[in-house]
Amino acid sequence: GVYVAYKRGSLIDTGAVLFSLTFYSLPSFWIGMVLLMIFAVNLGWFPVAGATPREWGDPNIWPTPPQWPKDWLEIIRGRLYHLALPLTTLVLFQVGGYILLTRAVMIETLTEDYVLTARAKGLPERTVLFKHALKNGSLPLITQIALAFGFMFSGAIISEQVFTYRGMGWWIWNAIAMQDYPVLQAVFYIIALCVVAANFIADVVYGLIDPRIKYG
Questions:
Q1: pLDDT tens, 72-117?
Q2: Beta carbons within 8 Å of 163's beta carbon, 6+ residues apart
Q3: In a 3-state reduction of DSSP, which class is residue 62?
Q4: Domain CATH code at residue 91
Q5: H-run or E-run covering 151
Q6: What H or E segment, with its residue span, contains residue 70?
Q7: Is the separation of the CB atoms in 51 and 82 below 8 Å?
Q8: Any domain includes 214
């Protein structure tokens, strides 16, 4: 987003905006199905479903990974291998909005007097962009990231169903289907705690970035 704003009006800017608008407009389950069809079904680079390798056992009962810490590299590799496509889906689903927001914030910030002063002092352009412009214009980005925690969980519900990935979203979906209200209450409580914690961290970061913000 920073580089796109710096290259405003160029071919890079046009391509980045088109890319961002495209993925920002697509639903997460459609992105997941396309990635699944290309990289899992056609190319066979990634597993079609599941969160753990088949040799670990039946995931419907309880997967039995290799012994820890003896085979910790194999455990991490197996988890990351099955996490690659679901994680890529969520990243592509979210990244468009962040690029557009960063671009809008940076375009406005680059016209401020303190940025022009930094350039007049002869500072390197990288220092002007990241230390002066981005730092002072990052408060809306921090707010967006904090608010996105709840949306990430809701998006993960559909994505985990597409990839049959047994995560938090999978538990929410099955609890709704089975009308298991205690599980739903527990999951929503965990999500609420994550959102509150994210907003608390955002408030702390506000004070670190902007010295004008003080907490009594």
A1: 677 777 778 888 888 888 888 888 888 888 888 888 887 878 778 8
A2: 32, 36, 49, 85, 86, 89
A3: coil
A4: 1.10.3720.10
A5: helix 139-163
A6: none
A7: yes
A8: no
